[in-house]
Amino acid sequence: MKKWSHVLSAAILTVGICLGYGQEAQAMVGGKPVIGISWKSPKQAKSYEAFKKIITMAGGIPVELDQIKSTDVTYAADGTVDKAYVEPSGMLKQAYADKIRHDGFERTNIQTVMQGIDGVFGTGGEDISPSLYKVPETEKNHGETINAARDISDYALQDYCRRHDIPVLNVCRSEQMMGIVYGVTFIQDIPDYYKTQGVKAYKEIHRMAPGTPNRDYTHHAIRILPVNSKLRSIVGDDTFDKVSSWHHQNILSVAGTGLIQTAEYTDQGLSLVEGVEDPHRKFAVGLQFHPENDIKQVVLNHKDPKGYADVDICLAFFKALIAASQK
């Protein structure tokens, strides 16, 4: 691992930049690309301080994106979707999910939100409303949180970036939302999926079980598929060890979507998608794992690097996003 102290010192000097319009931020720092971080509610966004430092370390200017709102629904004063549009679980009701899927970013405020933004880092988070799937499903998320306001914001963001070829690095939930916008088939709950495939003993590989004391990310290796991909060029190997993982949902298949699968994890004969890309876009990389967590723990929190994925490779994902955003 490289010595990051001098890089981190520079990051701390500039990480406070978070303006409403990216063009202003860009002018202040001599043209470095402005990287928008996908919206979370203020109560959820404590982790964004680490994201800002990481983006700055990689050579970009971080900006927290505002909430993207659709005129297909109405909102409460706190930005949540009014109860008339959601199920008790928080899932978007099917009729309104259909409108969001049909309209994409068109009936939103995204033109204002994305003013001056050169690239996007899509973050992890809650489950996605299964009413947004290509083949909609009823909600069976075993008590997990669904955030309809964030579903709308993230769906519009991924659709806009796709249609305008804006570079994106999407992790976990955002990788899943990217896939849903493209029309992937989807696994709503991995343990349930394993049962349907005849696997009786599911191992909690992709996240610690709910209720686990001191619950944290799990770590496992992934296989990089032998296809021409940004992921393979960044990792430079057939495997990537100790990636940070925390999810119970997953893309099932990218068949017929225009996306390619770039990585997998296989357990008991079942393969799960760990990475997707759109090879026709400048930079559209989705990772089911969390490279930002490894950087945060090793570089910012000074944890022992032996327990984490290679930090240089993890930071290289962000550097690649920023390089693509400069073009």
TrEMBL record:
Gene3D superfamilies recorded: 3.40.50.880
A UniProt-annotated Pfam family: Peptidase_C26
Recorded GO CC terms: cytosol
Protein name in the entry: Glutamine amidotransferase
Annotated keywords: Glutamine amidotransferase, Transferase
UniProt superkingdom: Bacteria
GO molecular function: hydrolase activity, acting on carbon-nitrogen (but not peptide) bonds, in linear amides; transferase activity
